[in-house]
Amino acid sequence: MTTPLASGLLTLALLGTAATAFDRRSPGGAVITPDGYLAPDALPLPTSSADQPSPPDSRLPAPDVGQWPHYAADAAATHYSPLDQITPANVSRLRVVWEWKPNEIPYEQYGTRPGAFQNTPLMIDGVLYVSTPYNQAAALDAETGRELWRYNPESYKDGQPASGQGFVHRGVAAWRDGDHLRIFLNTRHRLIALDAKTGRPVTTFGKDGEIDLTEGLVWNVNKKHYAQTSPPVVYKNIVILGNGVGDRLSYKQDPPGDVRAFDARTGRQVWTFHTIPQRGEFGNNTWDNGSWRFTGHTNVWPPFSLDEARGLVYLPVSTPSNDYYGGRRPGQNLFAESIVCLDAATGKRKWHFQFVHHGLWDYDPPAAPILATITVDGRRIDAVVQLTKQGFAFVFDRVTGRPVWPIEERRVPQSDVPGETAWPTQPFPTRPPAFEAQGVTLDDAFDLTPELKAAAQTEMKKYRMGPLYTPPSAEGTIVRPGVWGGANWGGGAFDPETGRLYLKSAQSLAVFSIQKFNPADVPPERKGEVDAEYVQRSLPPVFMNGVPLTKPPYAHLVALNLNKGEIAWKVPFGDQPELRKHPALAGVTLPERLGAPGPAGAIVTKGGLVLIGSGDTFLYAFDKATGREIWRAPLAEAAQATPMTFMGKSGRQFVVIATGRADKTALVAFALE
What we know:
Radius of gyration: 24 Å
Helix content: under 10%
Largest sheet: 5 strands, mixed
Shape: globular
Distance between the termini: 53 Å
Number of helices: 2
């Protein structure tokens, strides 16, 4: 329910804009009308996405021939496969047919260790292209898993990345240069072009096959603080990418989130987009006290998506530094925590929408926006959908940026942390409904026995609780969803036949406590990484030494009907065997599925299946019509990545998923026996 305010200004549906203002003006000064506003520097836009049809780009094989040429199946990030050999009737006959192991180990001399194997491979012309936790690239025979070549950029020599996940990498990108296929690997501060046949650097690209991504940024940075986790996107002859910046970094002029495009042949920079607008750029005045001069992050660490026919690229822009305290960056903070649509050829902004104003919760949009054609009230719409950590699906016309359903600005709780001025309102979509639990009260306590409920509530009373967007506090605020979502980098899978979007959602919990920064608390190996006035200290959201404060299930598989803006079905996903063994739960009747949090996502097939493995040690198949779990196969290690599927040259459909972490990783391939 919307909170009534004077003149109804904060119940305004903001169409195609990120602005929130009490005088009906956008940050750039354009008047907000009942239909939204057009930024003064934007070009006129068509009235609907159907006004600009054009032929698709066919540089890479289309998924309808059984390949998987992009990280998320296609540039639209649909995670959809038209293959139908594997069905609900025969999925139980899937068996492991090969495994490939990266065989990576810790290196004490560099202080490095491989992280989770989060890769989703490409499959082009019978070859899988893989990236490993240590950011190596490899080519495998798709039928057998036999390694054809491996390229080692030796990125571990720069030491452990300054991020909580450490060494991870989710994928590579491919591009055809005439008859030659190129593979682009982005690792730490480098972008490397490889010959797909040999795995050797293409020496005509940059200097000996690579470019330094720290050159040409808005300011100089520590190269060891610059990172990459998600693949680039390729449009025609340019490679577009952002960067990853460790959340723990919080100092003036830490790495900025500049998004840039490079010539795919030469490595020459083609354009740059400043995610924190610089002097004279639209949105610059949303960074008060000159904070645009020194605030970093605001980067695009998830994958991008691309409307190849229209030449539009969609950026899910993340949080600014510092994630949980904004006293040094007062204002609305565009384009942080926004979707931004750019002209892919020039980098010029077409439209944007900000999901969180002056963010304090690390609620960066975590996944590639999904391009989906839907039919709403009889009207065909080429839409773009952004899933969020807070459990929302925001749906826009992908050309104009106008929301498909109204988005309301609602008042939210305010901060009492010294120096902090939280934004008074936040946007709430009216459809689809939230797909995950939001906010916390004592009624949400773990309640499988009266005694456990009382103990959980006793622990919860130590902290602040409230609805979604209750700010971090000195005593600690229980936040739900926490930084793992809701949705996360696995994103969603869109079925064009039904208009349904399938997603993995976690009911994660966090306790955010804001403390005065004490330089003495920084260990020697992290000196120079923090100079903030206040920092966040995470407290464990558990009681009884490990039982979650809130009741299960802790993860779901959700189907959204995008034609109606409704939840079609929602079922618990995965399990936690270790939690079942907790001494405090001995003799307690537990649900069949506790739910397994995990950031990876699902794929959907024409064959009627949703395939997913995320957070526990199984690969699952669900009936996409009903949400019924049909099959699951045990894995030697936990599933860490979104799966993919392809048709081999033998005529067999394969399903491949990456598993494990550190020195126990494997790429596992299934096919019908």
